[in-house]
Design goal:
Shape of chain A: globular
Structural class of chain A: alpha/beta
Strand content of chain B: under 5%
CATH topology of the largest domain in chain A: Rossmann fold
Shape of chain B: globular
Helix content of chain A: 25-40%
Number of domains of chain B: 1
Number of helices of chain B: 14
CATH superfamily of the largest domain in chain A: P-loop containing nucleotide triphosphate hydrolases
Largest sheet of chain B: 2 strands, antiparallel
Distance between the termini of chain B: 33 Å
Structural class of chain B: mainly alpha
CATH class of the largest domain in chain A: Alpha Beta
Strand content of chain A: 25-35%
Oligomer: heterodimer
Number of strands of chain A: 13
Largest interface: A-B, 34 and 26 residues
Amino acid sequence: MIELKHVQKSFRVARRSAGFSEAVKALFHREYETVHALRDVSFTIRDGEMVGYIGPNGAGKSSTIKVMSGVLTPDSGECVINGRVPWKERVAHVREIGVVFGQRSQLWWDVPVIDSFELIRDIYKVEDGAYRKTLAQLTELLQLGELIRTPARQLSLGQRMRCEIAASLLHNPKVLFLDEPTIGLDAVSKLAVRDFIRAINRENGTTVILTTHDMQDIEALTERILLIGKGKILLDGPLSSLRDRRSPRRTLTVSYAGGRLPVDSDLTLVEEKEGRAVLSVDTDVISVSEAIARLSAKAELRDVSVAEESIDELVASLYREFSI
Amino acid sequence: MKLYLKLVAMHLKCQMQYKASFLMTCLGQFLTSFTAFLSILFLFNRFHAVEDYSFSEVLICFSVMLTAFSLAECFVRGFDVFPRLVRNGTLDRILVRPRSEIFQVLTSNIEFSRVGRLLQAFVILAYAVPTSGVAWTADRVFAVVLMLLGGVAVFSALFVLYAGFSFFTIEGLEFMNIFTDGSREFGMYPLSVYGEGVLKFYTFCIPIALFQYYPFLYLVGRSDDVRLIFLPLLGFVFLVPCYAFFRFGLRRYKSTGS
C-alpha cells in the first residue's frame, strides 16, 4: 500500500544567461530560482497494482520515485509505504523495495554478474535457500542463462538491463520501481522485459510502478496510469479512460490515379504528394465509410488505409491539453 | 564485517583486472611521495637541522604523517571521491540499499594502489625508528601507535567534512585540498617550525598537531609529560562534528536528474 498526500519538493537552482561576462557576473552574484519539482502530489496505490507513471521530461516523475524510495526528503506532505515513512525508516523501508534506475548501473563493472548478485544477496541479507529459489526463477524468466557468468562490461545494453532488473529483485521486494526500464533497448529486449514485468506482477504479486516515455510499455503493462505535469497529478485512472479521451478523428491515407479529391471542412487535407494524400476525418460528423464513398465518387482510388490516433499522439495531445 | 571483507575482495578483484594500470598507479604514488622525501633529504644535506630537529626526528614526523594519510586515503577513499558519487548518482543507489550510508560510502571505493605510498611510509618509519636515537620504551611505541590511529581519524574526519560540503556545491571543492593535502605537506615537519600561528591553527582548527606535534615532543624526549601521548585520541573527537555536518548535508540532499 502506497499513500502520498500533498507531497511537495522544490529545489533552488542557479540561473544565468549565456556568455562569458554573465559567467563572471554569476561568480559574484548569483540569481537563484526555485523550481517546484513536486507541487502537490497525492495518490494511493494498492498492493499488487501495476501503475504507469507518465509525463514529459522534467515533470517530476523521477523526483516522485526518489521520494518514494527514500532518496529525497520532501519539503512537506506525507508519504507512507507499507506503513513506513521512507526517509525516516530508510533501512527497513528499502529492504522491501526494488529500484531500477534505467540509466544507472548497480552491477560491478569488471566482474561476472553472478558475483554482483552474490554481493547484493549479502547486502540485503537474503537467506541462501530463498536466494537460490529467486535466482532460479529470475534466470528462467529473464533468460539469463550464461549471461550471469559474463562480466557486466561485456554485456549488451539489453542483456545488462535484464541483469539489472534481476539484481533489483533478488531480495524479493514487495514494491518495484522501474525508472525507464526499456530506454535504449531493441524490440526483442523490450518484449522480454515487458513479459517479465507482467510475470513477476502476476506470480509474486509485486506492486510495480513504472515511469516511461514508451507508450507501448504503458499499453502492454499497466491498467492504471498517473499523468504528472509541472509537479501535479493531472490524471489518475484506468488506461481505458485515457482511450475514451481519444479524439474521434481518423487519418485516411489514400493513393489515387485520377480525378480530384473532394475536400471540405469535414474531410480535411493534411498533405498531398504525387497521387498520395493524407486526409483527416472527424467521425462525429461523417463516418469513415461515407468519407471513402465520397472520395471514390470523385477520384479513382487505388489504396486506402485508416488509422486511429496512436497512444503516443494521444499523450502528446494530453500534454497540450494541460499545457505542460 | 564479513560483508566488508567481501566488498574489499570485490574491489581487489576489479582492480586486478587492469594489472598494468594498477602497477603504474602504485609506482606513481610511490614516486610522488618519494620526491617529498627527497626534498627533506636535500634540505638536511645542507642545513643538518631545522629548528633543532634532526634529520631522523623529522623523518618520524614525515613517516607518521604519510602512513596515516595513506591509510585514510586507502580505506576512507569513498568520502574522498564523494562528490563523484553525488554527481553520477551512485549515492541514489546507496540510499536504496538497506545498509548504513557510512558503511556503503566506505566500501564504494577502496583504493589499493595507495599501497605504493603506504609501503614507502612504512619503510621510512622502519628506518626512522631505530636511527632516531629515541629510547624505545613501551610507552613510546604506544605513542607511535596512537599517533597513527589519531592521524587516520583526523584525515578521515577531513574526508567526511569534504564529503559534507559536496551536498551544498557539486563543483569546486578543490579548496578543501588545502586542508587534506595541505595538512599532509605541512605535517612533514614538526609543526612548531612554522611558528606559533600555524601551530595554533593546526591545534584548534584542524587538529593535525594533536597527533603529530605534541606526542612527538614526548617521543623525542623534549617533554616529560606523559599525558601528551593521549592527545591523538582527541582526533577521534574531531570526527563527531564532521560526521554531524555530513548528516546535515545528507538531509538536504538534492540528487541529480536522471
